[in-house]
Specification:
Distance between the termini of chain A: 50 Å
Distance between the termini of chain B: 40 Å
Helix content of chain A: 25-40%
Strand order of the largest sheet of chain A: 6-7-8-3-9-10-11
Oligomer: heterodimer
Number of helices of chain A: 12
Strand content of chain B: under 5%
Order of helices and strands of chain A: EEEHEEHEHHHHHEHEHEEHHEH
CATH topology of one domain in chain B: MetI-like fold
CATH architecture of one domain in chain B: Orthogonal Bundle
Structural class of chain A: alpha/beta
CATH topology of chain A: Rossmann fold
Largest interface: A-B, 60 and 43 residues
Number of domains of chain A: 1
């Protein structure tokens, strides 16, 4: 019954991504960001508010207003460099390869339209890929609803968003994201509007979809514990710079950068190893590596008051 | 898949139920295909039903009353039966100076007034809301150009503009609709643009745009349902204004040409009899008042219902 989803080999690769407000290029919002999202893996992007987490997804999707933002660097989606493509063609191409799961399901669903038709919409009307007939789109929407764990999809199909709980709405949002067969899901704090139990269920669902469909997940969160427990790799972002990149399993034990350690120290109930390694000026280029030690020095003062 | 790994270390692991997919449970029938009954349920309320019934009654009476009650022709009268008082045999609401039956005049005149008002507002709403939605979507070039055009319309006093257009096109019902509809475009454009701007940055619109859903589809499914309530509420208020405008045009002789009556022209033609037979002016005024009041009450009640 499950719908097959084609997986592209290289999902998202970002090299030297820099985003700045036009006229303020000396203070970029994102500064030389490089990372990639592999099939079947969950990469977590962690950082405090304003670190540039959401800006990264917007830059990947190409929805930043080029009159306001200057984007440079190389962005590859589905194995193709999209940074030089024309805005409209790029958005259409990108939307067939990558889908965004929004933070707030209430804003992501149209309150005046029933949920099922919203899931079916892009399959019926999108100019990207092949258009399905009304009946075929409905059938696939019902299948997607089942896949994301919505009970009694036939009845929920005609429910309005306000008739659903927050977790159920987020499931519907994920179903919409899956409707275009994306290779990668960009999840922008998909659980921060939900309570802890619902959050766990949604994370289970994302995990399961990743395993079953082989899609890659870029998971954006401010929650270190969530990132460490669910993701494969963790990227720590601060003021638009990648501060540290390491496997999630090592996050609590082997984080070296002062900022990461500071973040970890603020998680209730977590204690750091007593004897931290001192960051070196030129760290080894291994899986666990420091991206920009200078950023720590430069930004060290701003963080004191938080 | 019920294992929860996300609880912070200091919290005890919570026993969680399985996901909804694993336990369907009692299916709450929240979603059923829409029917007329479910669509109209929340509007069953005295505040909505009473003014709506009055409005429907007036409309039915105007369009079917003269035929159903086989009233005398509204425009042919016997001069010897002029200025009969209310309650005269054969003429329940009396006659005017030319001996025309006043009841027939009021009902036939209502046809004209209502047709012009609804027609003009329909034009204003369709054109204006389309302009407003497009202006909110294309904010670079098209939007400002459209809005400045609407500003030009706004800059003229409504009735002066309508008089100018009506006198240029010549007196006829269709031209009155055009004249009044034209100046009502600006208000609808403004309201719709403001409402659309509220919706256009919502995630579902952004998602639909980026995934290549055609603009027409976005406008009809995502934008219009979210702005229609306010636009219709404004439309009902504007209908009242359009009726006043039609009455003013007819009063000035720029509306429907004589002898076809309309509520405005009845008032205009009978103003010289104000002291002798004030009912000739009061009756069409009451009709105008009743219609406009019920339209406004309906508009308020509907807005309240939508808000609740």
């Amino acid at each position: 019954m499950s719908t097959s989803v084609t997986v592209q080999n290289a999902l998202v690769r970002v090299e030297d991504l820099t985003v700045a407000v036009v006229g303020r290029e000396n203070a970029p919002i994102l500064d030389s960001l490089s990372f990639s999202v592999e099939p079947g893996r969950m990469t977590a992007l962690v950082g405090e508010s304003g670190a540039g987490k959401s800006m990264t997804t917007k830059a990947i999707l190409g929805v930043l207003d080029e009159r306001i933002f200057r984007v440079s660097g190389r962005i590859e989606v589905g194995g193709r460099d999209v940074s030089d493509m024309k805005a409209r063609a790029r958005r259409r191409y990108t939307s067939s390869k990558a889908a965004l799961v929004f933070q707030n399901p209430t804003r992501a669903l149209n309150p005046t339209t029933r949920v099922g038709p919203q899931i079916a919409e892009s399959m019926r009307f999108s100019r990207v890929g092949e258009r399905l007939s009304a009946a075929a789109a409905e059938e696939r929407a019902l299948d997607l609803m089942k896949q994301v764990g919505i009970a009694a999809p036939k009845e929920r199909y005609y429910a309005y968003p306000h008739q659903m709980s927050g977790g159920m709405k987020q499931r519907a949002v994920i179903a919409i994201a899956l409707s275009m067969n994306p290779g990668v899901l960009l999840c922008d704090e998909p659980t921060s509007a939900l309570d802890v139990t619902t959050q766990a269920l949604i994370m289970d669902l994302i995990d399961e979809l990743r395993d079953r469909l082989g899609i890659g997940v870029l998971f954006i969160t401010h929650d270190l514990v969530l990132a460490a427990s669910r993701a494969d790799d963790v990227l720590v972002l601060r003021s638009g710079r990648l501060v540290e990149q390491l496997p999630a399993a090592d996050l609590f034990d082997r984080a070296t950068m002062p900022y990461t350690r500071e973040l970890i120290a603020r998680v209730p109930g977590v204690s750091l190893p007593a004897d931290p390694e001192v960051p070196t000026a030129d760290p080894p280029r291994t899986a666990q590596r420091t991206i920009d030690p200078q950023a720590e020095v430069r930004n060290g003062d701003e963080h004191g008051g938080e | 898949m019920t294992q929860v790994e996300t609880s912070p270390p200091h919290l005890p692991e919570l026993p969680l139920d399985s996901t909804p997919s694993a336990s369907p449970g009692p299916a709450t029938a929240t979603g059923t295909p829409p029917t007329f009954f479910t669509r109209t349920k929340r509007y069953r309320d005295a505040g909505v039903v009473v003014p709506a019934s009055i409005l429907v009654l007036i409309v039915l009476a105007c369009f079917f009353g003269p035929t159903v009650f086989s009233l005398p022709d509204a425009t042919t009268g016997d001069l010897s039966e002029g200025l009969l008082p209310i309650g005269s045999p054969g003429h329940p609401l009396g006659t005017n100076a030319l001996g025309n039956d006043m009841l027939a005049q009021l009902l036939v005149g209502g046809r004209v007034t209502l047709t012009v008002a609804f027609g003009a507002i329909a034009i204003g709403m369709i054109v204006g809301s389309l302009i407003g939605m497009l202006a909110a979507f294309y904010q670079r070039v098209l939007g400002p150009v459209l809005m400045r055009c609407l500003d030009v319309i706004f800059a003229f006093p409504d009735i002066v503009l309508a008089i100018a257009i009506a006198s240029y096109l010549g007196p006829s019902m269709f031209n009155a609709i055009i004249a009044i509809g034209f100046f009502s475009i600006a208000g609808f454009g403004r309201i719709t643009r403001a409402q659309t701007l509220r919706v256009v940055h919502m995630d579902y619109v952004v998602a639909a745009r980026t995934s290549g859903v055609p603009m027409l589809q976005i406008l009809t499914t995502h934008v219009w349902p979210n702005v229609a309530g306010r636009v219709f509420a404004y439309g009902l208020v504007a209908i009242a204004g359009a009726m006043m405008a039609e009455a003013a045009l007819s009063f000035l002789g720029l509306g429907v040409p004589a002898p076809t009556p309309s509520w405005g022209s009845i008032i205009g033609q009978n103003q010289s009899y104000m002291t002798v037979a004030p009912q000739l002016i009061v009756m069409p005024a009451i009709m105008l008042f009743a219609t406009i009041a019920s339209v406004n009450l309906l508009s308020d009640a509907l807005q309240e219902k939508r808000a609740s």
